[in-house]
Amino acid sequence: MITAIRGTHDILPGEVEKWHYVERTARRLCERYGYVEIRTPIIEREELFTKGTGETTDIVQKEMYSFTDKGGERVTLRPEATPSMVRAYVEHSLEQVLPATKLFSLGPMFRYERPQKGRQRQFHQLDVEVFAMSDPAIDAEVIDLAWTLVNELGIGQAELLINSVGCKACRPAFQQALVAALGDDLPKMCQDCQRRARTNPLRIYDCKVEADQPIIDRLPHAIDYLCEACAAHFAGVRAHLDAFGIPWRISHRLVRGLDYYTRTTFEVLGQTIGAQNALLGGGRYDGLVESLGGPDRPGIGFAAGLERLVLALPDSVSATRPRRAFVVAIGEDARGAALTLLRELRAAGLAADMEFESRGVRAQMKRADRLKAYVTLVVGGDELARGEVTVRDMATGAQRPVARSAVIETVRTALTGRETTEA
Ligand code: HAM
Fold first, then answer.
1. pTM beyond 0.85, yes or no
2. Mutate to test the pocket of ligand 1, among 35, 48, 109 (most ligand atoms within 8 A of CB)
3. Which among 86-90, 251-255, 275-279 has the top mean pLDDT?
């Protein structure tokens, strides 16, 4: 048997309805906040991510699915959406095309990570990005959208963490302070941290090695090194969040694992999904558009892991399917009439099915039960002769004859407006 690749998953019927619920909620919310959908390719040039995501990130150093295609070009299965969104924004001059460049996208991402609960090699993100706006109010809007999504999905006990990592002007002083503070402790740290200290000291905050944590806890905090403009921006973001009544906590460790962040960074943590508890994360990236060949425009956004949102859904959100009708044919002669009725029901917008192998009435009824059909419509020789169909309510077992001409409306009344909850 050929099985799925490690770290990838089939989303099976029964589970997929929860995905629909999450995706539907996300889409509606994005539209309410004025974000428009964009779909970019899953495969991009490798350099988009080496330059965009950043050479010193774990993603680029260890996790990309990159290969040389048959034309000799280096290509990558996207590990995140932000560089693709920036590329599309620049390539199509979207700021001239759209009234406001507020975008969202849903789709699969690929990272060669060690799989565990909530961490996969193919996973899915809702990605939200805003270009060419720098006021703290837009940071607050993006955080509000992320926070509201988690709340509207009914995910309780979520926690919002925020931080500011400064800008080109104030970052160097913070990095110097970090390296200076490491001092004699650096040789005691893991190999990764020793490398990070040379390439990008902020990355030390990403370290998960237990023995390094006390050293990291003593390191200086980015917010103590912000220039005046960055400090005022961060104060603005917090003031807006307070005005919205959104609770936040500053986490000094929230430098985020990607190279492009400037100023605001944020994450929403969930309580119910184990070690991989970040439901979503994001931040501002004011230099990224320009570094990828575009005009000098700021940007801010976040991505939410859909697997993690689905895992964190409350139990009360169970998969729902539309109520359906089931057509039962008594005898071979009635099958033609039954198929016609089935097609009419579907054309009228109603969910309906029947048994396609010719079987006895009992077997057909059993199938209707398994499908959790709400009503069955029995079509047989006698009924046909009288111009009627027998309508059976599957919950109560009550049966009554209905004129063939009135069947569609009778079924519509029985089915519409409500949904059946699956076990
Ligand atoms: P990220 O923090 O790398 O940020 O990923 C965002 C979210 O994607 C995580 O919080 C998590 O929910 C989910 N995620 C990441 N890796 C995995 C995985 N291996 N398995 C399952 N879920 C995962 C970004 O990707 C940035 N592009 C976010 C952003 C947008 N920043 C600005 N704009």
1. yes
2. 109
3. 86-90
pLDDT of residue 317: 73
Closest C-alpha to 8, from 120, 106, 126: 120
pLDDT at position 423: 37
Q: Contact 378/364 with Cβ under 8 angstroms?
A: no
Q: Which of 99, 55, 49 is nearest to 74 (CA)?
A: 49
Q: CB 90: neighbour CB atoms within 10 A? A: 18
Residues 6+ apart with CB under 8 A from 41: 78, 84
Q: What pLDDT is recorded for position 25?
A: 97
Q: Which DSSP state fits 70?
A: T
Residue-by-residue DSSP string for 126-186: EEEEEES--SHHHHHHHHHHHHHHHHHTT--S-EEEEEE---TTTHHHHHHHHHHHHGGGG
Can you tell me which atom of ligand 1 is nearest the CA of 120? 20
Residue 104: other Cβ atoms inside 10 A: 24
3-state secondary structure of 301: strand
Q: What is the largest CA-CA distance in the chain?
A: 95
Closest CA to 256 of 247, 243, 267: 267
pLDDT above 70 covers a percentage of the chain that reads 97
The answer to whether the CB of 49 falls within 8 A of the CB of 63 is no
Q: Would you place residue 417 in the very low, low, confident or very high pLDDT band (cuts 50, 70, 90)?
A: low
Pairing of strands 388-393, 324-329: unpaired
Mean pLDDT across the chain = 93
Q: How far apart are CA 219 and CA 182, in angstroms?
A: 7
**Pocket residues: Cβ below 6 A from ligand 1:** 80-82, 111, 113, 118-120, 123, 125, 127, 129, 257-258, 278-283, 301-305, 307-308
Give CA–CA dist 415/349, Å, rounded: 11
For the stretch 59-91, pLDDT in tens is: 999 999 999 999 999 999 999 999 999 999 999
Residues 6+ apart with CB under 8 A from 80: 49, 53, 59, 109, 125, 127, 258, 303
Q: Is 253 exposed, middle or buried (0-12, 13-18, 19+ CB in 10 A)?
A: middle
Residue type, 423: A
Sequence-ordered list of residues with C-beta below 8 angstroms from that of 196, at least 6 positions apart, any chain: 56, 203, 204, 206, 207
